[in-house]
UniProtKB/TrEMBL annotation:
Reaction(s) the record says it catalyses: L-histidyl-[protein] + phosphoenolpyruvate = N(pros)-phospho-L-histidyl-[protein] + pyruvate
SUPFAM superfamilies for this protein: Enzyme I of the PEP:sugar phosphotransferase system HPr-binding (sub)domain, Phosphoenolpyruvate/pyruvate domain, Phosphohistidine domain
Pfam family, one: PEP-utilizers_C
Protein name: Phosphoenolpyruvate-protein phosphotransferase
Coiled-coil regions listed in the entry: 26-60
InterPro entries found in the cross-reference section: PEP-util_enz_mobile_dom, PEP-utilizing_PTS_enzyme, PEP_util_AS, PEP_util_C, PEP_util_CS, Phosphohistidine_dom_sf, PTS_EI, PTS_EI-like
Organism, scientific name: Defluviitalea saccharophila
Gene responsible for this protein: ptsP
Residue ranges of domain PEP-utilising enzyme mobile in the record: 153-225
Similarity-based family: Belongs to the PEP-utilizing enzyme family.
Subcellular localization(s) per the UniProt record: Cytoplasm
Location of the PEP-utilising enzyme C-terminal domain: 254-540
First-listed, main subcellular location of the protein, grouped into a coarse class: cytoplasm
GO MF entries: phosphoenolpyruvate-protein phosphotransferase activity
Annotated function: General (non sugar-specific) component of the phosphoenolpyruvate-dependent sugar phosphotransferase system (sugar PTS). This major carbohydrate active-transport system catalyzes the phosphorylation of incoming sugar substrates concomitantly with their translocation across the cell membrane. Enzyme I transfers the phosphoryl group from phosphoenolpyruvate (PEP) to the phosphoryl carrier protein (HPr).
Length: 574
């Protein structure tokens, strides 16, 4: 028996035999050709064939998986229309007399390298899209069909170096009981697909393809990332029990869709969702959540060649507002910078980009872009229950200036006779220690707070959350973090404004009871966590959790708090 630990990217338990998906090796020769036009014709044929295949995959994914996931193949088609990439191929064929396979490989490798070296995880993973499209075209040029997963005859756990979106879109849920990859992370397309298909998955297991062979038995946990290769009978039995408990849990959660998040002592709390695109609203509606607690508007600025126009943004916000039918939609003004770069905007090189020109700091330095977005949000507010939220406010002057600009935009719209919601609520994210300490002052000037725990933890503990050398210090259970959250909630309630949380901690089963006790009003999270958090809220009494929260705040370390929560009989965990 061999034990490995990777990154759990899709929850669930899988036990089964291994299907080792080996990469197709296509030998690319460096040849000098004479008939360049014939080679270009082959290239164009490969593009058209690839487009046709992607259209078929798009339609298949749309029917079997969902609209959001199908967009992967629309994005791949856009790569096939990238003039800059293909001009480079044409140039190598015409001026260097290279064969099309070699020219294509050379050009795409250049682009893949550029994306792989980016600091931003989301953009880094776009290299996989280019690799996937390139492989498809090389297969078409070579006449090789790739249908290895389609040919799967028996239920199996797929193990691969990586899985392309094309691979995951063709997965038959009855045959693929789980998958493990060497590459990828929680935001990779394969991980997103796995969660949509509800297939357990683990990523980031370096060299696992060298440690298993066809037919081996594997048992793994897609939440914890624990993987056992050829486990003994005792381990298999333990995983069978875990699997049974997990499936019962899903059955129970499914019954809660139309119930409300009310504590045992009748306190109603709001459960909202975090989204990045209008298409994500499908899942919010599917889970019957109370609203959108965080619309990460910066995703509208990514994967394109220029800033979105006011009209594009207006249509996106209006669509979300209308589909939510008067349920609240909190739009965070764009949080660019830090780990979120734009391919079409050159950011100044900074020693510490997370402490540099990002979020509201960037907006206040580019008033033109900021006003365009505010106009779009305000116009859309006439079509639903939209609220505006400013990210990463760290000093009071930033809030005052941002609100001043908002008022200028409102006045401009009034002068133009354009409708918007005059009573629109304005809030701010609390994600820096300075904002947490000044919460009592900020609370007098906004309608709500939303606590961004991912950054609040990072800045409070001075820990780069992307740095593996110090990641052990990054903990939502740290007493300093929990004391900050209490200070924020108390300050807000003193001024009669509500407080939400949109960081990962809002869906942490162990923290939810504590957050109830601290007085949090709204929990916003990934749609997949909505029903579980609803269950957590229904199991607890707010009064009892107040006492638990007070005890938690007396501890000195994260470990003490975790142990206390793990063993306290009043904390109900699955």
């Amino acid at each position: 028996m061999n034990f490995l630990k990777g990154v759990g990217v899709s929850p669930g338990i899988a036990i089964g035999r291994v299907f080792l998906k080996e990469d197709i090796t296509i030998e690319i020769k460096n040849e000098t050709i004479q008939d360049t036009e014939s080679e270009i014709a082959r290239f164009k044929d490969a593009i058209e064939k690839s487009k046709q295949q992607l259209q078929e995959l798009y339609e298949y994914a749309l029917e079997k998986v969902g609209k959001h996931e199908a967009q992967v193949f629309a994005a791949h088609t856009m790569i096939l229309e990238d003039q800059e990439l293909f001009e480079s191929v044409y140039d190598k064929i015409r001026t260097e007399n290279k064969n099309v396979e070699w020219a294509l490989k050379e050009a795409s490798d250049t682009y893949i390298k550029i994306f792989e070296e980016m600091d931003n995880e989301y953009l880094r993973e776009r290299a996989l899209d280019i690799r996937d499209v390139t492989l498809r075209m090389l297969r078409n040029l070579s006449g090789i069909e790739d249908n290895s997963l389609v040919l799967l005859k028996e239920p199996a756990i797929i193990i691969a170096k990586d899985l392309t979106p094309s691979d995951t879109a063709q997965m038959d849920k009855d045959k693929v009981i789980g998958f493990i990859t060497e590459e990828g992370g929680k935001t990779s397309h394969s991980a997103i697909m796995a969660r949509s298909l509800e297939i357990p998955a683990v990523a980031g297991l370096d060299s696992i393809t060298l440690q298993v062979k066809h037919g081996d038995i594997v048992a793994f946990d897609g939440t914890e990332g624990k993987v056992f290769i050829n486990p003994d009978e005792k381990t298999i039995e333990l995983f069978k029990e875990k699997k049974e408990r997990f499936e019962k849990r899903l059955q129970l959660f499914a019954t809660l869709k139309n119930s409300e998040a009310i504590t045992k002592d009748n306190v109603r709390l709001e459960i909202a969702c975090n989204i990045g695109k209008p298409a994500d609203v499908d899942r919010v509606i599917e889970k019957n959540a109370d609203g959108v607690g965080l619309f990460r508007s910066e995703f509208l600025y990514m994967n394109r060649n220029d800033f979105p126009s006011e009209e594009e943004q207006f249509n996106a916000y209006k669509t979300v507002a209308q589909r939510m039918k008067q349920k609240p939609v909190v739009i965070r003004t764009f949080d660019i910078g830090g780990d979120k770069e734009l391919s079409y905007l050159e950011f100044p090189k900074e020693m510490n980009p997370f402490l540099g020109c990002r979020a509201i700091r960037f907006c206040l330095g580019r008033i033109d872009l900021f006003k365009t977005q505010l106009r779009a949000i305000l116009r859309a507010s006439a079509f639903g229950n939209i609220k505006i939220m400013f990210p990463m406010i760290s000093v009071f002057e930033e809030l005052v200036y941002a609100k001043q600009i908002l008022e200028e935009v409102k006045e401009s719209l009034r002068n133009e006779g354009i409708a918007f919601n005059e009573g629109l609520e304005v809030g701010m994210m609390i994600e820096t220690p300075s904002a947490a300490l000044l919460a009592d002052i900020f609370a007098k000037h906004v309608d709500f707070f939303s606590i961004g725990t991912n950054d609040l933890i990072q800045y409070t503990l001075a820990v780069d959350r992307l740095n593996p050398h110090v990641s052990h210090l990054y903990s939502p259970y740290n007493p300093s973090v929990l004391r900050s959250i209490k200070n924020i909630i108390d300050a807000a309630h003193k001024e009669n404004i509500w407080v939400g949380m949109c960081g990962e901690a809002a869906s942490d089963p162990k923290l939810v009871p504590v957050l109830i006790g601290l007085g949090l009003d709204e929990f916003s999270m990934n749609p997949a966590s909505v029903l579980e958090v609803k269950w957590m809220i229904q199991q607890h009494s707010k009064e009892e959790m107040k006492a638990i929260a007070e005890q938690v705040l007396q501890f000195a370390t994260s470990d003490e708090i975790e142990r206390f929560l793990d063993t306290n009989e009043k904390i109900h965990l699955f």
